[in-house]
Structure to design on (676 residues):
């Protein structure tokens, strides 16, 4: 970090700041400018929030971070991109992964129909929510454990691994028994006890960006999972809140090349939540891949008009198959396979 | 418009609202619900009194628009896409158009060098700023008319049509003498006098979205130009202001399919301003083409590290050549040519 002192700071001020930095275990490097003096902090200060606290000193104008505050998630610490397999499905390599399925698991026939549909379309992983974080307490909250069982059955029937959301630490064990990937949803990106708990369960984690989470905060949430001993984290950009209301969220595709630069973790795009309208899903799925995403997560429903959640942004199975057919040549041109 | 009345109001109040609606030139249509009564005002709204005035009536809870407020810009009025033709280059057709050049015109040699380079790489239009809207009054404000002359010379030499920004009504004639496309920058998106003036000019206009302009407001600004008699409007998404600070702006690529759905006007994307970092320009340029943009506008500088403006987001000519090579197959994969 760089500590910028106010103009006119005395020698005593400079010595005081240097002494404090030294006591925290860092070396200092003074640089005296014409107007201001700057104290450079030498050493690995990523986890050292006390340095930021020096801003409370009268003589300090600002404390500026130089290193990113995350370590295990950073590309500096881990230059090659992370790759792993979920029941044989590669994630983070040359292969694009597509996860698809209904927003909510609603019934056995619904889930089976969608699972067969997305498998036929070429999806490699089945998504479906059993525990649903709904904005309104009156909205359908999911089939819970019954939904998990249906997902497991659909996985057995199709051979597709399953990703499903876990909302609270107490449910991590039961969800992990039925799912291949645990999803931490946008609303839980800073539920730190949940992050610690999914780190311990050992299963891969799909970590969605919150709707007002900066990229740095998001990578710090990933760091919680990594620091808890779980290296298999998949990031997912799903749209942020902005002033624009013609779409449900604003899909921040800038985040793809930024995350690829800062981190080695695989990153997916969710064009369903990112737009909120089925008719924009295809365009933004293509843009997601073109911007460098490692995969997509897409909502598919056999009857969107009667869906218990997210109908307006769900594709019908035939539209999903058409999208997959359009994505394949694009993936190839980008040097990926699908 | 839909006029929602407050709960528990009597027939006299409903009659009163209906009478007002009729007086404003619309046909009222009453829908009585279990809790609330709604009055639908039937009739073309554009050019008639604004029904939202009725929100001032005591018994009215809210007035909700059903129609888009723009007309000439809307796809309802013109279902087929518009093509803007500039000296033999067509924007909005099957071919993707790339506009490239320096942020600012700095010298004759600099413009010539960049113009030759971007032409060689396949750019169809030369960009360059002569009048510069700079956040700081101390920053380089542009070469003004001298800059326009350099641009005109570069056009003569390369045959590339020129796009350059006009900042104020008084300069419209001057800029129009030298340029092929007048650019209205993000900061002037709601400078309505300027919009009317370029509307009267008849030259094609590149209209950039403001950093906090909603898509509806953006299309209403386009409507100003169209309504003044100039059908040659090109829309440009260049990033919006969000909480994310890793990138200079958040490139809202959702806007591309949304604008394509709502409007017939061509849409180009500016990945240079939309990211603010040269190393994020290529992935976002590809993303833009993949989601349906009709073109790109990209900043190129022979020596970005010495640029008088926007150096960090400018590509070197060699990187621009490489990007163009990578864009061609992406364009083909989405059924376009480049």
């Amino acid at each position: 970090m760089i500590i910028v002192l106010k103009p006119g700071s005395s020698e005593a001020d400079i010595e005081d700041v240097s002494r404090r930095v030294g006591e925290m275990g860092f070396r200092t490097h003074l640089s005296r400018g014409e107007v201001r003096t700057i104290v450079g902090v030498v050493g690995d200060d990523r986890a050292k929030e006390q340095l930021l606290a020096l801003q409370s000193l009268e003589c300090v104008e600002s404390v500026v971070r130089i290193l990113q505050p995350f370590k295990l998630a950073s590309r500096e610490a881990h230059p090659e991109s992370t790759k792993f397999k979920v029941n044989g499905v590669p994630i983070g390599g040359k292969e694009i992964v597509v996860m698809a399925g209904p927003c909510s698991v609603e019934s056995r026939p619904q889930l089976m129909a969608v699972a067969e549909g997305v498998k036929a379309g070429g999806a490699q992983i089945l998504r479906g929510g059993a525990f649903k974080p709904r904005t309104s307490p009156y909205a359908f909250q999911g089939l819970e454990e019954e939904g998990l069982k249906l997902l497991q059955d659909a996985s057995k029937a199709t051979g597709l691994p399953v990703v499903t959301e876990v909302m609270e630490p107490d449910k991590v064990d039961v969800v992990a028994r039925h799912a291949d990937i645990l999803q931490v949803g946008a609303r839980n990106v800073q539920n730190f006890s949940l992050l610690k708990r999914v780190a311990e369960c050992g299963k891969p984690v799909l970590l969605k960006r919150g709707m007002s989470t900066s990229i740095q905060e998001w990578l710090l949430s990933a760091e919680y999972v990594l620091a808890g001993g779980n290296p298999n984290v998949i990031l997912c950009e799903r749209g942020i809140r902005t002033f624009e209301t013609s779409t449900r969220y604003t899909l921040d595709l800038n985040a793809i090349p930024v995350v690829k630069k800062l981190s080695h973790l695989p990153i997916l795009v969710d064009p369903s939540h990112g737009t909120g309208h089925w008719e924009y899903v295809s365009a933004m799925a293509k843009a997601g891949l073109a911007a460098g995403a490692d995969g997509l997560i897409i909502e598919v429903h056999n009857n969107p008009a009667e869906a218990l959640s997210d109908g307006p942004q769900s594709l019908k199975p035939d539209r999903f198959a058409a999208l997959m057919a359009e994505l394949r040549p694009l993936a190839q041109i980008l040097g990926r396979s699908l | 418009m839909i006029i929602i009345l407050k709960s528990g109001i009597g027939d006299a109040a409903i009659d009163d609202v209906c009478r007002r609606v009729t007086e404003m030139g619309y046909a009222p249509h009453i829908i009585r619900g279990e809790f609330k009564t709604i009055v639908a005002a039937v009739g073309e709204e554009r050019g008639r009194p604004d029904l939202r005035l009725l929100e001032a009536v005591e018994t009215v809870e809210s007035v909700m628009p059903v129609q888009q407020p723009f007309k000439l810009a809307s796809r309802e009025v013109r279902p087929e896409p518009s093509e803007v033709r500039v000296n033999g280059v067509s924007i909005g057709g099957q071919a993707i158009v790339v506009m490239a050049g320096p942020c600012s015109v700095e010298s004759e040699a600099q413009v010539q060098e960049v113009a030759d380079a971007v032409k060689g790489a396949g750019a169809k239009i030369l960009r360059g700023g002569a009048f510069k809207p700079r956040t700081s009054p101390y920053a380089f404000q542009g070469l003004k008319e001298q800059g326009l002359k350099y641009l005109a010379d570069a056009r003569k030499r390369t045959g590339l049509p020129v796009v350059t920004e006009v900042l104020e009504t008084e300069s419209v004639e001057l800029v129009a003498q030298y340029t092929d496309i007048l650019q209205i920058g993000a900061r002037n998106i709601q400078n309505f006098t300027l919009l009317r003036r370029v509307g009267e000019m008849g030259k094609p206009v590149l209209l950039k979205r403001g950093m906090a302009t909603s898509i509806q407001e953006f299309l209403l600004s386009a409507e100003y130009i169209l309504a003044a008699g100039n059908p040659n409007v090109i829309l440009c998404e260049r990033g919006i202001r969000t909480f994310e600070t890793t990138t200079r702006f958040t490139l809202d690529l959702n806007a591309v399919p949304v604008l394509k759905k709502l409007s017939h006007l061509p849409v180009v994307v500016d990945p240079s301003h939309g990211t603010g970092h040269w190393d994020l320009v290529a992935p976002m340029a590809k993303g833009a083409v993949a989601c349906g943009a009709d073109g790109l506008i990209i900043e190129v500088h022979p020596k970005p590290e010495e640029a008088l403006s926007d150096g960090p987001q400018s590509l070197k000519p060699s990187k621009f050549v490489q990007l163009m090579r990578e864009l061609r197959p992406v364009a083909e994969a989405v059924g376009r040519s480049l």
Notes: Residues 317-333 of chain A form the longest helix (17 residues).
